[in-house]
Design goal:
This protein has 513 residues and is an alpha/beta fold. The protein has 2 domains: 221 residues, Rossmann fold (3-Layer(aba) Sandwich); 202 residues, UDP-N-acetylmuramoyl-L-alanine:D-glutamate ligase (3-Layer(aba) Sandwich), CATH 3.40.1190.20. Helices cover 42% and strands 16% of the residues. The protein has 22 helices and 19 strands. The strands form 3 sheets. A 10-stranded mixed β-sheet has the order 8-19-18-17-16-15-14-9-10-11, with helices on both faces. Helix 5 runs parallel beside helix 6, helix 10 packs across helix 20 and helix 19 packs across helix 20. The longest helix is centred in the N-terminal third of the chain and has 19 residues. The chain starts with 5 loop residues before the first helix and ends with a helix.
């Protein structure tokens, strides 16, 4: 399923109306019916209930009015509170308002302090609230009366169904102005989900997300110019082929991992073993020669290759001459986990990456090595895959984390295109940004995965899958397997989940595709 920006959803509606001849009022009818159905289900089909409907003057309010009509037909008690000037009603919303007048529905325009007393009473006596105040076209910050209504709704402690996106949430980036947004129990998003439904903090306000096509043709919703999509099981399954019966370890991919430094041997171990769990046939860990005894005793299945070191536990330029002549022996090369930030190491990383012709995955300290040198990424022989968390990405782009989070997808997309690199951007909802402008959002993973070493496991999975397929497919599949393995591990509880729990469930995650 694709994910829309505000402009794209406007174009979808326009195409459905102008090219397919679907009247706007028909789309509104379908939207309102979907919302009413969701509300009735939330009330467990109990018609002895009261519904509070908050509606603005736009099409979002019109959807709420349609929902109110259907709920009245379900024999529920419905009280409708309207914000705004009746002269500002959109055409289709005005038509539905007129129908409700003829039905004798309880309609209240909020104008005076006494009207706000009715709002408080109506919320107290209601079992559920429908938020149709303002949709994807909202202009932030909100007007005072909208802020007041939102505060009343949030303080009422009722179940809330938001239409399309909770009022007050920016549909393009999930931001909320001054914390003023409806906290929905459920959001019924129309056509396809919006970016703001899925990014933090918007995802918190969205609650459970339901999607209804509202009758828009599928080929319109699947328009390839919409370059945001979900990463799900079906997509991942297309990218990971079954292992042939005549497979042997050499045919299943060979990964070189360059990782580890004094005090940071755990990261190198985790990513190396995760690569094996993800299905690669052979993993070689290249590390500083003084660390060899630690890794030789720590891992059984991983080949450990001692490399000349700049100083104890620290790799430098001298290691390049041993790595490059053997790069043809590998199908992908992962650089960075626990590698350290010694000046010699950072220089080593940049020079090595610029000379390697095999597919490269950069994680952690290898990403840091390109801070101030980001333009060099575009010179790689093949598009590298980078796996930064928000702090590493902000540092790479020389911006603040707050600035990055405010427009996450745009920054990721622009960086991917400009530097011809694939970014697996680790955040509350991990995204994959590709040089062709496409962005992919994970559907799996959980907050228990906020633990040390989790990113090292992801880097190892990515390297393993990159050894068998192209960079874009590898990044997408790796994010899914990582998140799914985390979800399997979390069945025993999220608190106390550790990186090796995720690693030990990669095999199960892949087997269940």
């Amino acid at each position: 399923m694709r994910i829309a920006t505000v402009e794209q959803i406007k174009n979808i509606d326009k195409t459905a109306i102008e090219e397919y001849g679907i009247k706007e009022i028909v789309l509104m009818e379908n939207a309102g019916r979907a919302v009413a159905r969701a509300a009735f289900n939330l009330l467990e089909n109990n018609s002895d209930k009261t519904v509070f409907v908050a509606a603005g003057m736009g099409n979002n309010g019109g959807d709420a009015l349609v929902a109110a009509r259907h709920l009245l037909n379900f024999n529920l008690k419905v009280k409708i509170f309207l914000l705004g000037n009746i002269e500002h009603f959109t055409g289709s919303a005005r038509s539905n308002y007129a129908i409700l007048l003829h039905m004798g529905a309880e309609l209240y325009f909020i104008k005076t302090p006494h009207d706000w007393d009715k709002v408080r009473l109506g919320l107290n006596l209601s079992d559920i609230v429908i938020d149709g105040l303002c949709g994807t076209g909202v202009r932030l910050p909100l007007k005072d009366d909208y802020k007041k209504m939102i505060a009343y709704i949030n303080n009422a402690g009722k179940s809330v169904i938001a239409i399309d996106i909770p009022s007050g949430v920016n549909a393009d980036n999930g931001t909320v102005s001054d914390g003023q947004a409806v906290k929905a129990t459920t959001t019924v998003t129309l056509g396809i989900p919006k970016i703001g439904n899925l990014l933090y903090p918007g995802v918190i306000y969205t609650g459970k997300l339901l999607t209804d096509s509202i009758g828009i043709p599928l080929n319109v919703l699947n328009d390839t110019t919409i370059k945001q999509r979900f990463i799900d099981k079906n997509l991942t399954k297309k990218f990971l082929l079954p292992r042939p019966m005549n497979a042997y370890k050499g045919s299943c991919g060979r990964v070189l991992v360059i990782a580890g430094s004094t005090g940071y041997t755990g990261a190198a171990s985790l990513c190396s073993q995760a690569a094996l769990r993800a299905g690669v046939g052979l993993v070689t860990l290249g590390t500083a020669e003084s660390l060899y005894p630690i890794f030789a005793g720590k891992m059984t299945e991983v080949i450990v290759k001692p490399l000349p070191e700049e100083k104890p536990g620290i790799l430098g330029i001298s290691a390049i001459n041993l790595i490059l002549p053997r790069e043809e022996s590998y199908d992908s090369i992962l650089i960075g986990p626990g590698l350290g930030r010694d000046t010699a190491t950072l220089q080593f990383v940049r020079e090595l990456v610029n000379k390697i012709k095999k597919p490269v995955i950069l994680d952690a300290d290898a990403i840091f090595a390109f801070s101030g040198h980001i333009d060099e990424l575009a010179k790689c022989f093949t598009p590298p895959i980078l796996t930064p968390h928000l702090g590493e990405m902000a540092n790479l782009l020389q911006i603040k984390v707050k600035e990055l989070k405010a427009d996450l997808w745009s920054y990721a997309r622009r960086a991917s295109i400009k530097y011809n690199s694939i970014f697996i951007l680790k955040s509350e909802k991990t995204i994959v940004a590709c040089p062709d402008g496409n962005i992919f959002l994970t559907t799996v993973g959980n907050q228990g995965m906020a633990t040390a070493g989790c990113g090292d496991v992801l880097a190892g999975i990515t390297a393993a899958i990159r050894a068998e397929t192209d960079a874009k497919k590898a990044a997408i599949a790796a994010v899914y397997l990582h998140g799914k393995a985390g979800d399997i591990a979390a069945q025993h509880g999220m608190i106390g989940l550790i990186a090796s729990d995720i690693m030990n469930n990669i095999q199960t995650a892949r087997a269940n595709l």
